[in-house]
Amino acid sequence: CGWGITCIQTVLPAVAKLVLVHFHWQVSLILDRYESNSSLLMSDALVQPSSTCRTLTVSPICSLQCGVCLQVVRRDALLALPCQHSFCKACWEQHCTVLVKDGLGVGVSCMAQDCSLQMPEDFVLPLLPGEELKDKYRRYLFRDYVESHFQLQLCPGADCPIVIQVEEPRARRVQCSRCMEVFCFKCRQMYHAPTDCPTIRKWLTKCADDSETANYISAHTKDCPKCNICIEKNGGCNHMQCSKCKHDFCWMCLGDWKTHGSEYYECSRYKENPDIVNQSQQAQAREALKKYLFYFERWENHNKSLQLEAQTYQRIQEKIQERVMNNLGTWIDWQYLQNAAKLLAKCRYTLQYTYPYAYYMESGPRKKLFEYQQAQLEAEIENLSWKVERADSYERGDLENQMHIAEQRRRTLLKDFHDT
């Protein structure tokens, strides 16, 4: 069929593409599974071999009701996938049009409830009105084909059509040859070593959320111990009644108020164990916020420093240009200044991404070692930053020695804590 599985003669190209997408284009795996159990392979991929647009093969004279619009139409006006769920052409057209406008490509499936059979492109394309929508659908298909391939990624650069291919799919730094965008191959975020992809995703989501709202909810709400609905306490005594299940309980200890042992507004269990307050959600929320702010402030500080160092790099470029124009050496003579500015940005970039890593690390000897190496790297980066800003006051050898030390600290940390 021309899509990498030529030995499967009964599978049409449009269906073969869906199978390839489902199994991330791992052809050898598909062939092995097809030889062992072809029916199970198709079932797992949510397709069937004969998934082509066709009408029901019974007498066209009879009429049936469309299951969506409830209109009575001739049988030859009904279309069905191999799952035999038949609907009128107008409903199929509307279904496909809406989904494609929503950005779906491969994900267009049967209209029937609880049926997830995938619709191949040769079924969908004739149902789409207008060439503009068809072209959009083809672009979505191409996007899905690339994103599902285990060795391919679309460049995340603005309006960049380049597809990046690697031999070994893993979290690694790649750079687009067209727009020069640098990103992580696995998750298409900015490269984030030593932090792994799931962790940086959690961190960025946390930073983007309204943290004050989240912490207010943590500090001022609790779940009903009976029905688990969220309840807010905005004043009054510790005797709470759930608005949903009417369960009476103590706000402090979450115990049943009927067996609480006190008719007053104080928690008797708290009198017996004063530490109960220290274990409350309010105390936990305050500690969690304090921890988050500690790492977030350092993350933001290094991000701002990177922006300032970009300006420093520009100033160095202008300074070198001025010296060359005044016959005070060549570009090669002053190249070390440019290299120092580049290395400074590289080291600080790595340091910035050590903070999400540390935030989610469990306490223990390994975290202590990480924080020790992190502190060493930070100290050498600040030394390098100082010398780059005042390069005229330092000998070339002194600056290059500081570059070497900072880069060694960076590489040591990545070697010990980044899973490559």
UniProtKB/TrEMBL annotation:
Q: Pfam family example for this protein?
A: IBR_1
GO terms assigned for molecular function:
ubiquitin protein ligase activity; zinc ion binding
InterPro entries to which the protein is assigned, alphabetical: Ariadne (IPR045840), BRcat_RBR_TRIAD1 (IPR047555), E3_UB_ligase_RBR (IPR031127), IBR_dom (IPR002867), Rcat_RBR_TRIAD1 (IPR047556), TRIAD_supradom (IPR044066), Znf_RING (IPR001841), Znf_RING/FYVE/PHD (IPR013083)
Q: Report any one BP term from Gene Ontology.
A: protein ubiquitination
| Reactions catalysed | [E2 ubiquitin-conjugating enzyme]-S-ubiquitinyl-L-cysteine + [acceptor protein]-L-lysine = [E2 ubiquitin-conjugating enzyme]-L-cysteine + [acceptor protein]-N(6)-ubiquitinyl-L-lysine
> Signal peptide: which range, if any?
1-16
Q: What is its EC number?
A: 2.3.2.31
Q: Where is the RING-type domain?
A: 62-271, 227-267
Which SMART domains does the entry link to? IBR, RING
Which UniProt keywords are present, listed alphabetically?
A: Metal-binding, Repeat, Signal, Transferase, Ubl conjugation pathway, Zinc, Zinc-finger
What is this protein identified as? RBR-type E3 ubiquitin transferase
Q: What is the lineage of its organism?
A: Eukaryota, Metazoa, Chordata, Craniata, Vertebrata
